[in-house]
Design brief:
binds zinc ion, alpha/beta, two-stranded antiparallel ribbon, about 15% strand, four-stranded mixed sheet
Length: about 270
């Protein structure tokens, strides 16, 4: 943060607190006689604010956002190779490089789930017809129905571990998520489903990425996607490409829609 932007930043922090109960831990300010720029930029504060506004928008406003998520502290931290991390009431964004609007929404979705004892992702799993079984996952790998190695994904097209149950968690996703990898589980499914719901055909900061996540399955096997690399896209279409390419036809879209419109009771 440049010193010339410090007043703007201070006002933005106050607004985030007031509108959403979001506290940003400032790592900039007057140090010992010298201005400390920290890792945040003015543009990042704006990006954070816009992404939070998108979430609040689908929830029906700032009051509902606060009721669902219950206050969050956002900080920059060294969190290894991850872009972000979240627990109830705490979102961490990596100090390495910047973050995307998608990452903000994904992490706030985790915070939302965590604030409900991770029950939202359990409800999503059930609603979409999925289940988690490390045992069946192991069986699937033993009889070579897996698109991964026995204990790990392989770093080549068609072997990254994307089929149902072919992941570390033994998560057999139901219906059609927008993608899956070795780290996929019900919690990641919920966060990605929220981001897809918010981005899908709404012309916002998440929309291009949401569209790209679906369109990649129209590629040929072995084709290279500029965002997602090389994979056997055609083979995976049956797991991930929604009916007619319309993500609103998926159970995940419907689940989030039901959730934000209070057609699902959250305990
Ligand atoms: Zn995540």
């Amino acid at each position: 943060m440049e010193q010339s932007d410090s007043q703007y930043a201070q006002a933005k922090l106050a607004q985030l607190k007031m509108d959403y109960q979001v506290d940003v831990l400032a790592d900039w300010g007057d140090g010992e006689g010298a201005w400390q720029t920290g890792t945040w930029s003015k543009a990042e504060l704006d990006k954070l604010d816009s992404a939070i506004a998108l979430i609040a928008g689908i929830m029906g406003g700032g009051d509902k956002f606060v009721r669902h998520i219950g206050g969050v502290t956002v900080r920059k931290a060294d969190i290894g190779s991850h872009g972000g991390e979240a627990l109830a009431h705490r979102v961490s964004l990596s100090t390495k490089g910047t973050f995307s609007s998608w990452t903000v929404v994904h992490e706030f979705a985790h915070a939302w789930d965590a604030n409900h004892g991770w029950k939202l992702s359990r409800q999503l799993e059930k609603y979409t017809g999925g289940f988690t079984s490390p045992f069946l996952s192991l069986m699937k790998r033993m009889v070579r129905l897996s698109d991964s190695g026995f204990l790990n994904p392989e770093q080549k097209p068609g072997r990254f571990g994307r089929r149902p149950g072919c992941n570390r968690a033994g998560y057999f996703y139901g219906d059609r998520p927008s993608g899956s990898n070795w780290s996929f589980n019900r919690v990641e499914d919920f966060a990605e489903s929220v981001a897809m719901y918010i981005g899908w055909e709404r012309g916002n900061d998440l929309s291009n990425w949401a569209e790209a996540r679906i369109k990649r399955y129209l590629l040929e096997n072995g084709a290279s996607d500029k965002n997602f690399g090389v994979d056997n896209w055609t083979d995976y279409a049956k797991y991930f490409y929604p009916d007619g390419g319309d993500y609103t036809k998926t159970k995940r879209w419907q689940f989030v829609d039901d959730l934000v419109n209070a057609r699902i009771v959250v305990s």
